[in-house]
Design goal:
Helix content: 40-55%
Low-confidence stretches: none
CATH superfamily of the largest domain: Formiminotetrahydrofolate cyclodeaminase monomer, up-and-down helical bundle
Mean pLDDT: 94
Number of helices: 17
Length: 563
């Protein structure tokens, strides 16, 4: 399993795309790194770049990008709405797959040390990579921004973690961090007032607003025993926010960094801003995502807004994402393309992308009928199961919206969600069955000349054959699981759709028995008898039980139809 990290450098240039192109070209010279997103902002004069890969290539790409930014960006001439202190303002590393935060911290500090040493300029470490508590919060390091650096670097308390404590007018300083996945999310207001936008930002952000005596606007600031201002916390944890005016769009925004979306989700942040804005006579008109977002965050948002409408959440992934986009107005300022904004879609391995399930019905039938041995019965069995689960899910969704059954929407929503999960698993297995067949073909292509080649061929054949048994066995189990949803919909769902549940049962039976045939034929000659005996015993039981469940559901369907 490859370790994957993400790097999200923010460069202090958002207007001259020729400069940004030279920087991103450096990133793309590194083999094993994938550039995911380049998001420039003219008003902020800042570009957020996102790329991923294994740690060592990512570190090399980050070093080259920062080096090029130092060569091309002149901070002494920089202006923009966003706080900043260097040509590369921040360069955080984010653990994505098979890597811990502790490991990511080690890589971040290595990168910071190399930048400071080889490029000879001030570098600070923040968030999880910080060497002391005060520097965990980026706002503390960046206080006063670029303009404060000459004096700040003279203060021993703000000696850089790496590089010289010397002001470099052209490049400023860079902050290298290790952090959880951060979502940069802006909410649009129907005002041009930065002051009013800031009022909303102070309402919601974790830090809140300064406490004052008497009048909350002009009253004397309350200070603690150390002489530091006392703050009234905002309503959202793990959220940083400020208000600003974006000339490019002619509106004020609440600019938020959601630093832990498991604590404060995108949809919760959106709704909380709506609540605060309304209380202040403002209206939210939409929102903007800067950079990328995890797929699950969008799916959760879709479910949240459907639940608020008391509608079934058991709809497709694409529909959940569409609901999220519309509900939060993510496409108000510019088009929102999920394929370009959701990180999982961007880092999908092309070799594992679905092929069969991306075809239309005629293409799928023609491909099956062609002289190619795949797709064969295994993929067809999986797809029969897809249809069975889809029919049951359809009945659940129809039932959740049936007139007079409004108080039962959640009951059917839960069934629809379960059906969607089964459907999605089987859709994956439609193509996985063909990949399992291809693994056998690959193993057969290994030469069998000398002893070493023969051993390699046998090992590859054993692994490929085992997988060719496991995949249809997984199809069996998944198709069998759909009977629970189908039976519930036949018994308790919309009676006008009971025949659909019956057809679903027929499809599920076909999926189980068809994949069982594939298990048996692929098991011929497999040498691990102990492992195989367990599979065969369980398979026999599932096949027999599937026939029984199909008969029971069809009898129930016939009874309801007969009245």
């Amino acid at each position: 399993m490859k370790q994957i990290i993400e790097c999200v450098p923010n460069f202090s240039e958002g207007r001259d795309m020729s400069i940004i192109k030279q920087i991103t070209d450096q990133i793309e010279t590194v083999e094993g790194v994938k550039l995911l997103d380049v998001d420039p902002g003219a008003a902020t004069n800042r570009t957020v770049v996102t790329f991923v890969g294994e740690p060592e290539p990512v570190l090399e790409a980050a070093f080259l990008a920062v080096k090029k930014a130092n060569e091309l960006i002149d901070m002494s001439r920089h202006t923009g709405e966003h706080p900043r202190m260097g040509a590369t303002d921040v360069c955080p590393l984010v653990p994505i797959a098979n890597i811990t935060m502790e490991e990511t911290v080690t890589y971040a500090r290595r990168l910071a040390e190399r930048l400071g040493t080889e490029l000879d300029f001030p570098v600070y470490c923040y968030e999880n990579a910080a060497f002391n508590e005060e520097r965990r919060n980026l706002a503390n390091i960046r206080a006063g921004e670029y303009e404060a650096l000459p004096e700040k670097l003279k203060d021993p308390r703000w000696k850089p973690d790496f590089g010289p404590a010397t002001f470099k007018p052209r490049v400023g300083a860079t902050n290298v961090g290790a952090r959880d996945f951060l979502v940069a999310f802006n909410v649009n207001l129907n005002t041009t007032s930065t002051r009013r936008a800031n009022s909303v930002a102070f309402d919601v952000r974790e830090r809140g607003r300064v406490k004052r005596e008497g009048d909350p606007i002009v009253g004397k600031i309350v200070k603690d025993e150390k002489g530091e201002p006392v703050y009234i916390p905002g309503t959202l944890k793990a959220v940083k926010a400020i208000g600003w005016y974006i000339e490019e769009y002619g509106i004020a925004q609440i600019s938020m960094n959601l630093t832990n979306i498991s604590i404060t989700s995108v949809h919760k942040a959106f709704d909380e801003v709506c609540k605060s804005a309304t209380s202040r006579g403002l209206r939210v008109t939409g929102s903007e995502l800067v950079g990328l977002i995890p797929k699950e965050a969008m799916l959760d948002a879709g479910r949240y807004f459907l639940e608020k409408q008391r509608r079934s959440k058991g709809v497709s992934e694409e529909e959940l994402i569409r609901i999220a986009i519309r509900s939060m107005g993510l496409d108000e300022l510019k088009p929102f393309n999920p394929k370009e904004k959701i990180i999982e879609y961007l880092i999908e391995d092309a070799s594992s992308a679905p092929r069969l399930v991306s075809m239309d019905l005629r293409e799928f039938a023609d491909e099956t009928a062609s002289e190619s041995p795949a797709p064969g019965g295994g993929s067809i069995s999986a797809y029969a199961g897809v249809l069975g689960a889809s029919l049951a899910t359809m009945v659940a969704n129809l039932s959740s919206h049936k007139r007079g059954w409004d108080d039962r929407w959640e009951e059917f929503s839960l069934w629809a969600e379960k059906g969607q999960q089964i459907k999605d698993e089987l859709l994956f297995l439609v193509d996985e069955d063909t990949r399992a067949f291809n693994r056998i073909m690959d193993a057969l292509s290994i030469p069998k000349g000398n002893a070493e080649e023969k051993a390699a061929r046998k090992s590859a054949m054993d692994e490929a054959t085992k997988y060719a048994i496991e995949v249809p066995f997984r199809v069996m189990n998944t198709c069998f699981a759909s009977f629970e949803v189908i039976r519930a919909m036949a018994e308790h769902g919309n009676p006008n759709s009971v025949s659909d549940a019956g057809v679903g049962a027929l499809c599920a039976r076909t999926g189980v028995l068809g994949s069982w045939l594939n298990v048996k034929i692929n098991a011929e000659g497999f040498e691990d008898k102990a492992w195989l005996d367990n599979i065969m015993r369980e398979g026999e039981s599932i096949a027999a039980e599937a026939v029984k469940k199909e008969h029971e559901i069809l009898a129930l369907v016939e009874k309801i139809i007969a009245g």
